[in-house]
Amino acid sequence: MTADTTAFLDDLMARMTLDEKLGQLNLVTGNIPLPDDRAADIRAGRIGGMLGGLVDCTFGVHGPAALRAVQEIAVNESRLGIPLLFAYDVIHGHHTVLPIPLALSCTWNPDLIEAAARVAAREATACGLNWVFSPMLDIARDPRWGRIAEGSGEDPYLGARIAEAMVRGLQGDDLADPESVMACIKHFIAYGAAEGGRDYNNADVSLARLMEVYLPPFLAALNAGAGSAMLSFAAVNRIPSHADADLLRLLDGVLKVSDFNAIPEMIAHGLGDERGGIDADDPLQTLSERALRAGVQMDMMGHGYASRLAAGVAAGRVSAAEVDAACRAVLEAKVKLGLFADPFARFDEARAARNLRAPAYRTLARQLAADSCVLLKNAGDLLPLAPEGLKLAVVGPLADDAWNLLGPWSFQGDREGAVSVLDGIRAVPGVTVRHARGADIVDDARMIELLNFAGPKVGRDPRPAAEMIAEAVAAARAADVVVAVLGEAAEMSGEAASRMDIGLPACQRALLEALHATGKPVVLVLANGRPLTLPWEAEHVPAILVSWFGGCEAGPAVADLLFGRRAPSGRLTTTWPRHVGQVPLAYDRATTGRPGSRDADPGKYTTRCYLDGSSEPLFPFGFGLGFTTFAYAPPVADATDLAGDDAVLTVSVAVTNTGGRAGEETVQMYLTDPVASVVRPGKQLKGFAKLALAPGETGTVAFRLTTADLAFPDASLRRVWEPGRFIVGIGPHADALQTVEVTWRAGA
Ligand code: NOJ
């Protein structure tokens, strides 16, 4: 803040009443047309910002003019004319729906992800928004948890690089730029550690784990200048984040906002007040005070700040200074967004017309959707397909479905403009397509009802299952190749969408088995928001392409890959288990005192793990195929004996495209600290680089390592690096590394 801004805010706050200050802390839903009581509250200075409700938000539909009218009430009709924040869950594009964040992370391409976030910011600001509840930075290692779809997977290093990119893309160089929005990093913290993968659940996480796994993306985003942070619904280590003053101190300097109704929800968590007296019947009083004292500055739909804190101040349980600090944080955000300089800068109809659904965004959306796809299997080089004269059966409940491919959190998405896989394939010249639905996405009536909360995305075919399968089998028999588009409905992931069985729904699996039994080659295209357990599929289906929820251009992007117009280059950012019983199974698990080879020595007592199956993943972290092959030379270290804090190690590797097609490889570098004072992860990602190589071409990547990369929280949680041996592994995924060992001694 400049001296001028400080003076401006000092002056403004000196003129504000306590109620007006509390009004700034009040974040409420904002549907249009605005109900009379909301308008009255804005006029009275009782509202600091508004957010779009999940289902009923109409900001985007009504365009900037409607929202401008709301801002006009705040600016022209309230006593102090303080502009409002307008927030929305812009999670993966806004009108132009881009692939879900988990998909985007599989590009391992922060620059591309930054460009995606910039597009989202342009469209959000075209609608008059100035704040988005994104990026979600929760590291997630439990595929049962539906919100794994909203983040960047299981790794803190990759998550941190993506977090920075997202913040840069959303906020641009200057938050006051009318095409920039304030990012809101969420959910602080360890929401992804929810017990059992059950949404809204609590987590018991050691502080060392918080530091090593859950915090890095948040710290990176803070470093990149993220303007705000949202707290998590979870109680972590017994304290709901909304009441955890110690944790919230890590967010000093950014605007801290509660999650939706989360302050009152601490009552159900079992906090509140039972001492009798003033609070006895009003735990919201106690909890609103506690949240403010802990550092929560804006109350999203909890209503306790607006209705209870004045009494708290009067009784001396919260101080005027605490209210002032929170109010100043909100006002500072508004200054940074340029809202005082020009509260209407984001309501520019001409820019909206240019920026909403711009054709260039579709081009980017198609590239993102293709680059997000991960090819898991391609036996006999079944892919790419040669289109000329090809008879294709395109089957499955998600083949002729563009809506579900938009994924969760796409409420403002341009549904009509979205293209299905069937249409994407039909647009390829030379191919004859026969389509059959083959199965419903799910056949459980209760689940269908739950999935359709945001619109009728999951339907039921009136025909019996056997009849649908028979039709698909007939199409398959008449075809050269079968493309089966199977997987999840959009709302099978996202908020409150955990699954205990993460395989293909039984009705789809039955279809796939019938298709396989025809003997025709089957390409399984998955639409999904989480890792799935597919041991049967991986064994029997020759080609498997994970397309996630790819957004509005998912169909053309999948067609691009199937027919080789682009080569698949995505790599998994989550470990894929064989069976849900293996979860959690992140790649960086520590070795035990009885490691051995569990699969090689299953009969050996000391290496036995599961009696009923392998303990190895089905597909490891970092894995993905292309249409060519790459050979890695052994990595070369520029020194094998280093000393001191300031030494720098460079490890290089040469990678050659040994196949017949151009391709892109994601070269990954992992570090192992084989001996330490505490048990360390078996390996940790410390670097990656993408190489685009023509057939026969060799490229070299040089990775730098410093002692910051060696450091970890020791038993007393100090970040230290411990001299000794270190192993640097480089390869195409976490389970295929060639290593070089170095010794790093203490100071020279
Ligand atoms: C609850 C979700 O946890 C959060 O991610 C979202 O931003 C808010 N609702 C607002 O919709």
Q: Provide a count of the helices.
A: 23
Strands in their spatial order, largest beta sheet: 11-16-15-14-12-13
- The radius of gyration computed from the alpha-carbon positions, rounded to a whole number of angstroms, is 27 Å
Instruction: Say which CATH homologous superfamily of the largest domain is assigned.
Output: Glycoside hydrolase, family 3, N-terminal domain
Structural class, by secondary structure, is alpha/beta
CATH topology of the largest domain: TIM Barrel
Gap between N and C termini, in Å? 43 Å
CATH architecture of the largest domain: Alpha-Beta Barrel
Number of strands: 27
Bound molecules: 1-deoxynojirimycin
The domain tally reads: 3
CATH class of the largest domain: Alpha Beta
Strand content: 15-25%
Query: What helical percentage do the residues reach?
Result: 25-40%
* Low confidence ranges: 54-61
Sum this structure up briefly.
The protein has 23 helices and 27 strands. It is α/β, with parallel strands linked by helices and 748 residues long. It starts with a helix and ends with a strand.
Topology record:
Blueprint (H helix, E strand, L loop, with lengths): L2 H13 L2 H7 L1 E4 L6 H8 L5 E3 L7 H19 L7 E4 L12 H5 L4 H17 L4 E2 L23 H16 L12 E5 L18 H8 L1 H8 L4 E4 L3 E2 L2 E2 L4 H4 L6 E3 L4 H7 L14 H12 L4 E2 L3 H11 L5 H17 L12 H7 L3 H14 L1 E5 L12 E5 L25 H6 L5 E5 L8 H7 L13 H13 L3 E7 L18 H12 L4 E6 L7 H6 L2 E4 L7 H9 L67 E3 L3 E2 L3 E3 L5 E9 L5 E10 L11 E10 L4 E8 L1 H4 L1 E2 L5 E2 L3 E8 L6 E8 L3
Helix pairs in contact: 2-13, 2-14, 6-7, 6-15, 6-16, 7-9, 11-12, 12-13, 16-22, 19-20
